[in-house]
Amino acid sequence: MHQRWLLGLLILISAQALAQDAKPLSLTEALKTAVERNLDIELQRVTIESQRISLDLTRAKYEPTVTADSSIASQDNRVENTNQGQVGANFNRETKRLNSAYSKTHDFGLTYRVDFNNSVRKSGAANEALFGTTYTSSINFSIEQQLLRGFGFDESVYRKDQFVAKGNYQSSLEDLKIQVETVLLNTEDAYWNLVASIEELKVAQQSLDLAKQLYEQNKVKIEVGTLAPIELVNTEATVASRENDIVTKENSVRAAEDALKKVMNLPVEQWRHSLKPSDELKIIETTPNLEADYQKALDARPESIKNRIAMDNAKAELKFQKNQLLPELKLTGGYGSSANSSNDVEFPEDAPPQIIGTGSFTDALSDTAAFDLPGWSVGLELSWTPFNRQAKLNQTQAEVTLRQRELETEQSQIVILEEVRAAIRDLETNQKSIKANEKTLKFREENLKAEEQKFQNGLSTNYRVSEVQEELAQARNSLIQSRVNYKKAVTKYHKALGQLNQMHNISVQ
């Protein structure tokens, strides 16, 4: 018997030591820690960054392009007529060029370009007169506008790749919401499981206290001769059984703590500390409405949003492929100005008369900028593939994909409806279960008082009192479990509506 009391003392000391080492933890803290440290969430954030880069890449082709090139060339030639000098003599022609261009692609299939070209050509005869230097400058504006294929006022046609990439990026954000909701659900379940284990340990301790009280009452009855000594054996067995139950409940608490630590992904050094939940099992009843809740779920559920994105992408692909069946017709146009300028030219006295000119590169630039000699052009370019089998197959494939997305959306709506209905049923069932267990507990408490009074008057037995005590413990545990189940049902309800992140004020960005 002394060993049994020593075991009880050790249990009490162990519980007090654990309580002193316990770290208070609110549900909000547990949820935020779990979200911040979850590796799957971090991996999804990396996926989002990858999708964002893919989206930026589709925008790159709409950025302006600036090009520039320069060159120098030298070519020896032979004089072929007297206008160039002495026939048969050699002369050298050197050409230098510096060109630049600016181009940009715009919406609706429009591309425009500006070219600015400049060159210097120098010609001369060996050991004789200098033929001269010619400066050339020009500026040209050109446009190219698609009129059939590649033309349209719908973003999903002229910027299809960007439209789809944007949808994929948004879809990856919804995947992050799904991942966060899963972590929140698992963490909250683990938190309330720990709360339930601690409360059940308290119930076991209360049950042990009742058994000890009955044991002490039996000792008094035996001393005064109103109870046979053999009756003490039954109460000793009950005390031993309930001490063992405490050991089992303590192990359940530690297991629940580890489960919560695992979901929170706590560092190894923090696992030696116990967790003490600070949130209580307070019940705030929720009043669901099936029709309104179902509509909320369709609007807010990440799965539903992803389906809408997939549908939009499929429609964009179909529009684009239909556009690709059209012939390619381009309107081209250009407008520009060019000018030449030459410097003084010297010839031998016996050379034929020449047109003598003076000029410089500045003169050429000035004449070009003044648009003294403008020029323009307008044209149409038509390209047509009579059979265009590839484009037709691509359109058929896009139609099949769109149909798949429609069926997936319908299927998802049914799944969401079923989950919302199930969540509402769980809420209502657990609300009723709490009320029923509260009544049961009240009756069990009254029954124990009556049975103890009968035992004091000699109208009941140790066995019956112990049995009623066990029934009371079961009623307490049932009420605890029904409250925990209701807390979990509320979490599943908000998850079914796509509101779990907002409910806990958790940002997923």
Walk me through this protein's architecture.
This protein has 509 residues and is α+β, with helices and mostly antiparallel strands. The chain has two domains: 2-7 and 23-54 and 162-280 and 291-314 and 399-503, Outer membrane efflux proteins (OEP) (Up-down Bundle), CATH 1.20.1600.10; 67-150 and 329-383, no CATH class. Helices cover 60% and strands 19% of the residues. The chain has helices spanning 2-21, 27-37, 39-60, 155-158, 160-224, 231-264, 290-300, 302-324, 361-369, 389-456, 462-496, 500-503, and strands at residues 23-25, 65-78, 90-106, 110-125, 130-146, 275-277, 328-342, 374-383. A six-stranded antiparallel beta sheet has the order 2-3-4-5-7-8. It has a two-stranded parallel sheet with strand order 1-6. Helix 2 crosses helix 5. It is elongated and about 155 Å long.
> What is the N-to-C succession of helices and strands?
HEHHEEEEHHHEHHEHEHHH
CATH class division of the largest domain? Mainly Alpha
Determine the oligomeric state from the structure: single chain
Q: Structural class of the helix and strand makeup?
A: alpha+beta
What characterizes the major β-sheet?
Answer: 6 strands, antiparallel
* Count, helices: 12
Number of strands: 8
What's the mean pLDDT score? 86
Uncertain ranges: 126-130, 344-357
CATH H level of the largest domain: which superfamily? Outer membrane efflux proteins (OEP)
Overall domain count: 2
Strand content: 15-25%
CATH topology tier name of the largest domain: Outer membrane efflux proteins (OEP)
How much helicity do the residues have?
A: 55-70%
Q: Nearest-angstrom radius of gyration?
A: 44 Å
